[in-house]
Amino acid sequence: MNRTWLLAIGMGLLLAIPAVSATEALAEEPRWTELPAAQQRLLSDYEQRWDTLPPAQRATLVAGARRWQQMNSAERHQVQRHFDQWQQRPLAQRKAIRERFVRFKSLSKARRKQVLRQHRKFRALPVEKRRELRQRFKEHRVDQDRLQRPTRPAADRTRPTTVLPHRVVPPKRPHRPTPPPVHRPVDRPTTTRTLDGR
Questions:
Q1: Angle of CA points 31, 32, 37, to nearest 5°
Q2: Which of 43, 71, 108, 193 is within CB 3.0–4.6 Å of 75 for a Cys-Cys bond?
Q3: Domain span including residue 38
Q4: What is the pTM for the complete model shown?
Q5: 77 and 130 both lie in a single domain
Q6: First to last CA, the chain
Q7: How far is the C-alpha of 47 from the C-alpha of 42, rounded, in Å?
Q8: Backbone region of residue 10 per phi and psi (left: phi > 0; alpha: psi in -120 to 50; beta: other values)
């Protein structure tokens, strides 16, 4: 049960609270013994390795524990539900989400606000409209990929080629006809047998 709460705290950090800046993270480097008892209970899975964790990770965990303690039961339930959904996602999808989050955090503050406004507008749309927009976006990306492919020089255009970005086509080998089979005479016994076995 304790592990579930700990994981929920971690997800709450990813989903519910803003990230701790690097300067804040370095400023807070509490040792395990310096943590209040309530936080030690929440973070008990980290006790053995706490002092070996990077300062930024320790600060993030402490901030998450503080946030968890301030949540009411409805907020905790929501964080737990988000965490359960996160755990059900395939690893590749989780990795992609983390990468998008890193890209998002690297945007300027103004651009992040713009992206968040656009996301809120998108989430406010009816489900069918969102599906339609997602499909149009996928088609648009495919079209953009086609436009960005390098074109061949005019001399090369006479030779049709099919290049698929997801498949490597091995070079063709020249056709070599297989030689005809060689017939060798079979040694047969010179004696003949009759039907009666003699």
A1: 130
A2: 71
A3: 2-90
A4: 0.46
A5: no
A6: 91
A7: 10
A8: alpha
- Out of 59-63, 119-123, 167-171, 175-179, which region has the weakest mean confidence (pLDDT)? 167-171
Assess contact for 1 and 35: CB atoms under 8 A. no
Structural domain contains residue 151: no
Percent of all residues in the chain with a pLDDT value above 70, rounded to a whole number = 57
Sign (positive/negative) of CA torsion 139, 144, 145, 151? Answer: positive
Supply 155's token pair.
Answer: 């001399």
Both 118 and 59 in a single domain? no
Task: Please give the helix or strand (H or E) that residue 48 lies within, else none.
Answer: none
Contacts of 132 (CB under 8 A, 6+ apart): none
Residue 95, pLDDT > 80, answer yes
Residue 176 lies in a domain: no
Q: Are residues 68 and 113 in the same domain?
A: no
Structure tokens at 158: 């006479």
